[in-house]
Amino acid sequence: MSSSSVRVSPDSRRQGNCQKPGIQPLLLGAQPHRRAHLYLFVRRQADRNGRHLGPLEPTLHLERNHPLAWVSKKARAPSLEKFSYLSAGRLHHANAEKIWKRIGDAMTAYVDVDRQGGRQVLPLAHDPLAKRELLVKWDVLSLADRMKQMKFSEEIRNLLSPQLSINCHNTLDQGGFADMLRWWALGDYDMGRMFDKLGRYGIREGMSELANRMLADSSADVRLAAPVKSIEKQGDTYRVTGPQNQVVKARSVVLALPLNVLSSIRMEPALGSTKLQMAAAGHTGHGSKCYIHIRQKIGNWVGSAPNPFPITLAWTEKHPDEGTVLVAFGPPGKLDITDEETVQKAIRGLIPKAEVLGVTGYQWEADPYSRGTWCWYRPGQLTQGLAELRKAEGGIFMAGADQAEGWRGFVDGAIESGITAARDVRNFLKA
Ligand SMILES: Cc1cc2nc3c(=O)[nH]c(=O)nc-3n(C[C@H](O)[C@H](O)[C@H](O)COP(=O)(O)OP(=O)(O)OC[C@H]3O[C@@H](n4cnc5c(N)ncnc54)[C@H](O)[C@@H]3O)c2cc1C
Is the pTM of this model over 0.85? Predict the structure, then answer.
């Protein structure tokens, strides 16, 4: 998926039919498809970012009066009826509803840091640092540290861990616990609501179509296959250097890069030290995701396994004419999704007789323009890094899902941050 990697507002002589006469946005992107196959440069009125109108994806919801009203609320979460899980070296099969209830109870206890289900520590989901002074104490913990504080049975640990592992798309020792409190708040402090928001709805026409429509609404001059190598400040101007040393000059630049590639662009002057630290550590989303087509008809199934199993969570995604299509997630470096035999061996840990007909997936980790999947912060990054990461430095503005305030790590967060950056750039250029 692609949003703009670097958005440049060149000088005022280049007129365009954009929202403010005299500002012509230019979008430079490395590749035509990115994390959600979406181009996020939107010519958008910043004022529309005033209120979150809806309970699910608030920023997308702002598109209601826009041609994007086609965003369909299509319930797609199948009622997953069968649950298989690995615990204590054995594969168990159970009624999914009962297992979800147990996981829900465990998760509710896990996030209950203040006897108010996290409401005191993170009262405003879209302003995660509103009670920073209370959150700091919990932000030092990893997901694994918090697990150690809980008096869960081994079975409950083995059921809850895969859920947490898919969230941070890594092992529990890497993921910050504070981000779990954030998701919980975004999910209205309730597991069912959280799952609804995370996965219940899809866009009927697909993410790419959303991207196309947003792009069609923009006056931006789009140049893809134009990875930026460096950005240098010269007086009031930024020189953005791309392939074959092509240079674009601009008064302001929006860096809408994934956190994990932020350090790949040479900046002169360098970004502030907190930004550099955040970029060097990166976020934890380094795991695998793939679709597995198996010969068997297994119905609406979900399976989970704790670390170090190569597939931590998988479930039925589709019922094609032949067999079943599963979607499967795993921690970093455990599953070669290009090797069907390896995938078959792994999925047989959860579905012993599975015959794999095909596997597909994208290796986000290997892509130099993403270096990972979705964003989940490490311990300390939320309270020590986010606010600083978001700050503009001169004419350099920050955007992208990985530093959004609300749905950080989601398409909605990317849009939120794009709207904010557009407003800030406009004010900067007006000044
Ligand atoms: C497998 C997977 C599943 C996901 N599922 C969901 C989901 O169900 N729902 C959801 O909301 N979110 C989901 N996400 C997360 C979501 O896709 C991202 O959070 C969001 O798309 C990020 O948008 P962005 O514009 O900030 O970054 P990106 O989409 O990563 O765009 C960054 C852009 O920067 C470009 N770039 C990088 N380096 C350079 C350079 N040097 N020069 C020029 N351009 C450069 C890239 O090519 C890219 O175009 C998922 C992500 C993955 C990987």
Answer: yes
